[in-house]
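Structure, all two chains, one model.
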Amino acid sequence: MASVLRSALKSIREKGLRGFFRELKDEGFLSALLDGNLMQTKIHNIGATLVGVDKFGNKYYQKLGDTQYGRHRWVEYAYKNRYNASQVPPEWHGWLHFVTDHTGDELLLLKPKRYGIEHKENFSGEGDEYIYHSKGHSLNPGQRDWTRFEPWQPKKD
Amino acid sequence: MGLAQIASGALHRSTRFTYKPYILRSIVSTPDRHNSGASAAAAAPAEPDLPPRTPVGAPGSTSPIRKTQLSRLSIAGNCRMCLVEVEKSPKPVASCAMPALPGMKIKTDTPLAKKAREGVMEFLLMNHPLDCPICDQGGECDLQDQSMAFGSDRGRFTDTKRSVVDKNLGPLVKTVMTRCIQCTRCVRFATEVAGVQDLGMLGRGSGEEIGTYVEKLMTSELSGNVIDICPVGALTSKPFAFKARNWELKGTESIDVSDAVGSNIRIDSRGPEVMRILPRLNEDINEEWISDKTRFFYDGLKRQRLSDPMVRGADGQFKVVSWHDALALVAEVIHQVKPEEIVGVAGKLSDAESMITLKDFLNKMGSNNIWCEGNGSNPNADLRAGYIMNSSISGLEKADVFLLVGTQPRFEAAMVNARIRKTVQATNAEVGYVGPPADFNYVHQHLGTGPETLTELAEGRHPFSSILSTAKNPAIIVGAGIFDRKDKDAIISVIDAIAKKSNAVTPGWNGLNVLLLNAAQAAALDLGLVPESDKSIESAKFLYLMGADDVNLEKLPADAFVVYQGHHGDKSVYRANLILPASAFSEKEGTYANTEGCAQTTVPAVPTVGDARDDWKIIRALSEVAGARLPYDTIGAIRARLGTVAPNLLHVDERVAATYSTSSLRPEVKEKMDKRAPFETSIENFYMTDSISRASKIMAQCSALLRK
């Protein structure tokens, strides 16, 4: 606890009070006051090692030793207000779920060059424009025109 | 395990040994015969080794007579797939061409006949390409069926196959002449039924091929039928090429509306679109043929369709509105005009149900100015014999003299023309024709062009009148084109006089016929769609056009409100103030009476397009919005109403003959014929007569290429 206080005082000294509060907000400490999950993560983070940061800004922590096995790897999402598990890109998924001990930065080299596509999080429930519509779905923008007749068009004169 | 196997093997071997003759016999190509032989052999193993015999023609007999024989064509015996064994005949004989004689013993299912057919099949397939997967006939190919039934499982032919240059037969018939097996069905059809000498057989032996002798399009209004009769994929439909396979299609048995014949058709559809139209056998109307317009105007059903109710705004542009608003607007306007200023015109494709609904609705609104286009402004609907073909279409075959007055049946009703041609070919019947110079595909005498020829015939001064008066069953056919003439009644009274002089109307024969032009005409006259005044359109303030596109709107007052209810944006929509989209004949249930007065019904084959509705439903809804609710809600209830007005329309598929002959009951006609006005051609372009065929691209191609 003392070390936390010390580092906080240090950053106030470096950035000034205003900069300190901005950083508190950006790092999610303010949202953590209302969000138990995030607060839990933040408390968990104390003393953990930061293994890597992916391209979305998600931070991957690991704490060995006094942590229960199986709970020793976790992620702190980049978005502090709207986070879900689908924000973890595939290269980090294996490390995070104990499938592999290789970190995402290492596995990124295995990503297929030719057909590998960018990871997209699941936007379900975030609005119609984010929903995936299959090829035959009427809301798919590339939907084929199944109208089998030509309507009469009144002449514009 | 081992023991069991040995035991079963021994059993098996012993069985095989016992039934050895059957096992030897079992090498046959058709499995069903194999099985029947097996059961017979199992039941009585002592029987001699012969398959069970069934007499020729009995159900279950495998009589092979199916290839080149079509009952309406002459017998050629070309393909020889119907070979049978005849006792005391040294060779197998082609059963299609061999008359059966008393005492003849014909065996259709002997090893000899089967071997002969298998050999013939091998020859037929020798030069036939193996392109079934890309052939449009695939799935409905007679050769495929025959080779399945009689063919060998392998060929012995190792040489190169013959190839033949494709012929250009026009925009309707696609040719792949390499596939041709020289059955000469198309040649026989063209010369015998269609009456064009375009197709023929060229060359001999392996150089034999079907073709037009010189590069020439097939100019017949029945040319599409060669597609049906071609047993292989040599002649296929050009518009249908590579569009669908026949097993994907849903067939709906319906009625054609492109002319007044009411040909029986099958509408083949896939999902929401009509893919093709084929004829259906009806000996009394179209036999097994249909005209090219009937067969190929279906693509017009997919183009220029009215799919939403539209209102013309103050700026002259159409705007899509809801049904609710459209009907409310019509109801508002119809109450603002005087009842006698309301006029309704039914179109040439209207069904009887919608016409009676329109008539009932306008009568409730106080107007009785309703007619059907094509019937003229003053039609005579009093006596049914006065507007239908009294001798019936099939009855024309009994006639021995024809007198055609102002009609060109080849273009007005191609199937009736085929019937006349059949009679002329079979019995050398005389044909006299009064009218403008026209194309006929049989021998005829052109008697004159105008009404004065009719007077000469009536007075017996014309050379043809002696032929008419000596005829046993003369058939006088009057074209519906004269309905538009001012002196129509005078002409009909003169024709009555001609009929009286000859034996046209006798107790057993009524040969005084009218050949109508449109599908709706007969039913409209049956229902009494007769306007009160022939000047009604000049004084109309509210005009209800139910699919009427050929009505002359020039004299319509500029402030008249025109409602167009129909399925195609054709001619009249440009004058309309409000458009109500309706369904076409392929999408609705409707009763049509053809020119001989036979009522037939269409059946929906495809769903309606867009927001369109059935004609009668629109008027029924409109009547409710206008506050004059019509008392029927279902098609059955409308038919009950039809039955009270014209009971003959309920006798579906059976012709109800007219009760009285008109000639003795007609009132005296005072007016004289207009001698200076000759008869006119009623159909300018055979391929474009109604809103559907005018929207069709295929018909546009045909009229560009095939009309001279």
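The two ends of chain B are 85 Å apart (CA to CA).
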